[in-house]
UniProtKB/TrEMBL annotation, chains A, B:
It comes from Advenella kashmirensis (strain DSM 17095 / LMG 22695 / WT001) (Tetrathiobacter kashmirensis). One of its GO terms (molecular function) is oxidoreductase activity, acting on paired donors, with incorporation or reduction of molecular oxygen. SUPFAM superfamilies: Bacterial luciferase-like. This is Dibenzothiophene sulfone monooxygenase. Coiled coil: none annotated. Residues 25-388 form the Luciferase-like domain. It comes from the Bacteria. FMN binds at D58, T104, H154, Y158, S230. Belongs to the NtaA/SnaA/DszA monooxygenase family. The keyword Flavoprotein applies.
Amino acid sequence: MKKKILFNAFDMNTAVHQSQGLWRHPNDRSGEYKSIKYWQNLARKLEEGMFDGLFLADVTGIYDVYGSNADAALRNAVQVPSNDPFLIVPPMADVTKHLGFGITGSLTYEPPYTFARKMSTLDHLTNGRVGWNIVTGYLNSAAKAAGATSQTGHDTRYEIAEEYMEIMYKLWEGCWEDDAVERNRETGIYVNPSKVHPVEHDGTYFRLNGIHLSEPSPQRTPVLYQAGASSKGQTFAGRHAECVFASSPTKKVLTSTVKKLRAATQEQGRSGDSIAIFGMMTLIVGGTDAQAQEKLAEYRKYASHEGALTLMSGWSGIDFSSCDPNEPVKHIKNDSMQTAIDRFTISDPNRVWTVGEVAEHIAVGGSGPLIVGSAETVANELQQWVEETASMDSILLMLLRRTPSTTS
Amino acid sequence: MKKKILFNAFDMNTAVHQSQGLWRHPNDRSGEYKSIKYWQNLARKLEEGMFDGLFLADVTGIYDVYGSNADAALRNAVQVPSNDPFLIVPPMADVTKHLGFGITGSLTYEPPYTFARKMSTLDHLTNGRVGWNIVTGYLNSAAKAAGATSQTGHDTRYEIAEEYMEIMYKLWEGCWEDDAVERNRETGIYVNPSKVHPVEHDGTYFRLNGIHLSEPSPQRTPVLYQAGASSKGQTFAGRHAECVFASSPTKKVLTSTVKKLRAATQEQGRSGDSIAIFGMMTLIVGGTDAQAQEKLAEYRKYASHEGALTLMSGWSGIDFSSCDPNEPVKHIKNDSMQTAIDRFTISDPNRVWTVGEVAEHIAVGGSGPLIVGSAETVANELQQWVEETASMDSILLMLLRRTPSTTS
């Protein structure tokens, strides 16, 4: 029995997302991320390629753990400079018909009332093709930029997130009845006031008293994404998410993550299948397996290990700037982060990864698996991932988009 | 000596902006405000008509003073439902080349750090065609929606705004040097860290420590608009604004406003001419003067006095729901509001406006003057406004856009 696989592309409104150093490739066009045309071309290509969605990451801070400053992040353009992800979606929606858009939005930096309107507006403009990746922020630098001395504790962030979501549902689902907008030229009634119900919320972290500003959009609540890998994150996903990212370097680790997520969903009284789990991976496709390997070798020539270690440091909270590349990477106990490094070190007890090897992998494949080969090889491998992880039903493709073949 | 007149169109991402009731016109298309194509058609038309800019108002609250509830605002769709103004700008920029975009953004509801990036992103995407109308919020309902019991005091709001602007300039102008982005494929240096200077701000209302996330955009600081008519507002405009709105029903009142604004600008050490002052007005043009008057009469058949009074109540803070239409409108002493009604009552000491007359005018002309006639009549009248107000050099045209002739 073949499962239908959903495909999301993974990108960010920035010069260098995850593939560190590849902007140096002679045909690279990463500098065009500031233009509307760049994103429209990408969206058109994805739609032609029958992708289900484009997922846009966002980080409102700097990766300044490496070397305890922002120098390496800047030198390698590690997700900085970066621009707002929401603003590129309407022009992409304008040139596509069925492509979905998942946008990362941190609920730490925008009040619920205006954020709810922003998402509703996008849902109107895209005609119901928008999703929201709910994040609570994980970089200290982002918290400092917003005026805090450090970020709010991990558990508190999820408590805040729960209350934020409660308000979102009230605004999106509970405020305007389906037929509240009458727009009747005869009676002169545009909106029937008896079908609009003000939201009153008096909680621990938020107070709100008002009418949602937007009329009901095609989806009302956008598709909800979640990526938190911690137990709190999984509970949150079980309650709210329709799509979850689970980046794991091996099928075994992914299978275990998938099981936990299905269980967390069932604990919240939902069917385990109500979540689509996206395993993150990078594909490099060539005419033959050998040609694909050559392509990989060519890409690796441009890889920046410093950039990769800067990412790793930001993800793990550990400064890798003083590490020897031949040093083995240790398993990091840190529930509050998406510890990409954890995933390497626990994936295969028989293999000891060195700092340099992880850096080399991340620079081209990010923190997920890298699949290299002919179209047939890659397709077979994808099928195996889907079958062997039992319940994984979706794939998130990391884009090495800055190179000429934008989706390979 | 002829002055060059700048033209801005005035609109809002909502069903009914100011022209109350005109959505009932048989050819009206106000319901399409939720679509990308609607805004692109408007932008194209404005560019063809050689407009300098499109100015987008925004209100993050409900006009609930009239009758002490939101019923009349909803019934007449008085600026509700409304959507986010920022998200319609990129698709409009995509189909135009020189049209500018002035967007209303309240600094009360978004932290400086992410707001600065949002504006920089728009400046990149529009290739330097974006402006920001700085507002501090004036509806109690908006403050309540954001969790306050009522809005912050007027003077405090301007203190907060001053500090907010200080941070904006630091992020936009002081953080990235012009040549910080090297993007050198040979050296592997994308950004030169020594040319990026973290912003440290420890003020009364905000703390911030971080690097502006966006690289320098074409304008860096967007064109700054301001509309506050109070003395605090004029001081603020004198310090920051490049464009100011001054809606006044007579040339005499506008002349006085213009003088005050020029003086406020000079007090801040800037040339009085460094501000472009936009007088708000509505034009109705016909083949002949008589035909234009017929058009006005036709529009007035659809005008909603209840909608107009709902606007007036929101602007003035006075509930007009119990007023007799024949009652004279009294001069309202309220420095903290843009008292549209003030402008009527003080404009001509010899005329006593009734509540009904003001409502009738506002429903088609908003709070500015209404100029009706053939193209020649209207052009002459515009020229007189410019010459007789001495220093007024710009005109903001209210769009009766929902009717077939979108810019008439």
